[in-house]
Automatic annotation (TrEMBL):
InterPro entries: ABATE, ABATE_dom_sf, Znf_CGNR
Annotated Zinc finger CGNR domain residues: 162-205
Name this polypeptide is given: CGNR zinc finger domain-containing protein
Length: 220
C-alpha cells in the first residue's frame, strides 16, 4: 500500500502517521505538473480515501476497511473535505509565509470553516496491549478524524512545522522538509526553486540596467 496522492508527484512522504495528512493535502491539483483533484468527484475520492485509510490503518494494525462504508460518501462530504483541505493549506501558508490567500481563497474563510469542524476517532487495545485507532463516524468524519489525530501527534512530537507548502504560488504542493534546520521553502529546488531564482536574477539584472541608464542620463 502506498500514499498515492503524494507519490504521484514524486515526493517523499512525511514519516509515520503524518503521511496521512501529507497525502490529504496533496489530493489537491498542484502545478508540478498539474494532476487531477482527487476530491473532485465521488469515484476519485472513494478510491483515494479507501487506499489512504488502508495504508494508515496498517500503521496501527487496525483493519478499518471492514468497518468503513465508503459508499456513503456524498457530494456534501466532498465539499467539506475540500474546504478542510483548503483550510489546512491556508494555515500552512499563513504560518510559513505570513499569508494564506493563495491556498484558501484570500479572506480566511477556509480557516474559519476548518475551525468549526469537530471529529473523533475510536481507540482500542490489541491482544498485545498496544493501542490502535480507527475512524469514527461516516462521510467526511471518517477521514478527518484520523487526519486530526495525526496532526496532533505531529504537533506533540515537534515535527508539524516540517510539513509545508511550496513557496511557489503556482505550485503550493505540500512537502515534508527534511533539511537539518527546517529551512526549506520549495517542494523541489530543481524545479520551483530554480524557476524562482532565475526570475529573481532576471529582475536584478533589469533593475541594474535601468539604474545604469539613469546614471548615464544624469551625466549628459
Amino acid at each position: 500500500m502506498t500514499w498515492t496522492a503524494t507519490s504521484r508527484y514524486g515526493l517523499d512522504v512525511a514519516p509515520d502517521g503524518l503521511a496521512l495528512v501529507h497525502d490529504f493535502l496533496n489530493t489537491a491539483s498542484a502545478d508540478w505538473p498539474r494532476k487531477p483533484d482527487l476530491l473532485a468527484d465521488r469515484a476519485l475520492a472513494t478510491e483515494w480515501i479507501g487506499s489512504a485509510l488502508a495504508t494508515w490503518a496498517s500503521q496501527w494494525g487496525a483493519p478499518v476497511l471492514d468497518e468503513v462504508d465508503l459508499d456513503t460518501l456524498s457530494e456534501r462530504d466532498l465539499a467539506v473535505l475540500r474546504r478542510a483541505r483548503a483550510g489546512l493549506l491556508e494555515s500552512l501558508c499563513s504560518r510559513d509565509f505570513g499569508t494564506g490567500g493563495s491556498a484558501g481563497g484570500g479572506d480566511g474563510d477556509a480557516l474559519a470553516g476548518l475551525a468549526n469542524l469537530e471529529v473523533a476517532v475510536e481507540a482500542g487495545f490489541g491482544l498485545d496491549g498496544i493501542v490502535h485507532f480507527k475512524p469514527k463516524g461516516r462521510g467526511w468524519r471518517m477521514l478527518l478524524g484520523p487526519v486530526a489525530l495525526e496532526m496532533r501527534r505531529a504537533q506533540d512530537a515537534g515535527v508539524w512545522a516540517r510539513l509545508k507548502t511550496c513557496k511557489n504560488e503556482r505550485c503550493r504542493g505540500a512537502f515534508y522538509d527534511r533539511s537539518r534546520n527546517n529551512s526549506g521553502v520549495w517542494h523541489d529546488v530543481r524545479t520551483c526553486g530554480n524557476v524562482a531564482n532565475l526570475r529573481a536574477s532576471r529582475e536584478r539584472r533589469r533593475q541594474a540596467a535601468e539604474q545604469a541608464v539613469g546614471r548615464q542620463a544624469r551625466t549628459r
